[in-house]
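Researcher: We're teaching a course module on how sequence relates to structure. For the next exercise, students receive a sequence and then see the predicted structure as C-alpha cells, so they can try to spot secondary structure elements on their own. Here is the exercise chain.
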Amino acid sequence: MIVFMKENRHLTPEHRRQLLEYTLLLFDTADRLPMLISNAHDIYEHRHILKQLSFSEAATAYLAKIVRVALENGQRFRLFDTLKVLRTLVVASGGVALPGAVVRDLFAIYRTLILRSREEIQWCLSRLIKDQILEDGELVWLLEYWPESVHVANRLLRYPTRHDLVERWAKERYDAGDLVDRQSEIIALLFPVVGLNAFSSENPETLARAVMYARIPTQQKIAWLLLLVPVLSPQTIADFALRLNAPELIRTALEQPKPQ
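Model: And here is the predicted structure for the students to work with:
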C-alpha cells in the first residue's frame, strides 16, 4: 500500500479521475467509447488502453468509421499507431466474419492506403480485411491493382470463400504463367472448379501444398494426399500428416513397395 501511495501521490485529482475513467472503458465499452474517443487523434492518445479491449463489433465499427472519415477528410494523425489499434481489435475477433458495414469501412481504409504506404503499414492494412467477405466492386478493385502490390495479390490468393471473379482470375494467372512462386495457391483456388486430375502434370510437391491451401473439407484433403503419397517426400508426408492429424498418410507411405 505504501508503494501504491508513492506512485500516485503526484497525480492531480483530474488526472486520477481520467485514468479511472479510461480503465472503466474496458468494462463498459459500448457506452463509454463514444464519450471518450471522438477522433483519430484520441485513438492514438489512448492506444494503449484501447488495445486491451475485448473484441466488440460495436467498438470495431466505431473506430473504423472514425479512421475512414479522417482519411476522407484529409486529417493528419499518427497513421501507423492508429491503424495498429484497429488491427488489434480485428485480430481479437478470432476470424469471425464482421458485419458488412464494418468491412466496407475497413476496405475503404485499405484501398486508400495500401498502394502508397510503407511495408509495415501495408502488412497492418492487409490484416484488416483478411478472411472477410468483400463486395463484387471491392474484388474488382483488387483484380485491377493486384500487379502493383503483393499484399493485394495475397488477398485474392487467400480469399476465404469461392467466388467466380477470383476463380476466373486464378485461371488467367495459371494459363499466363504468372505468380510462379505462388503456384500452389493459384491451383488451390482452381481445385473446386476442375479437381485434382486436371493438374496431373504439375510437380507433386506443388500439388500437395495446393491441397493444403485449398478450401475443401479435411477428409477431401486427406483423400487427395493419399493419391499423392507415392510421389511425395517423407518430410512432406510427415508434415501434412501431423497438420491434418492423418496418420493414414504415413501408413500408406510405409506400405509402398521398397525400391529395388
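Model: If you want an answer key for the exercise: The mean pLDDT is 91. Residues 154 and 167 are 14 Å apart (CA to CA).
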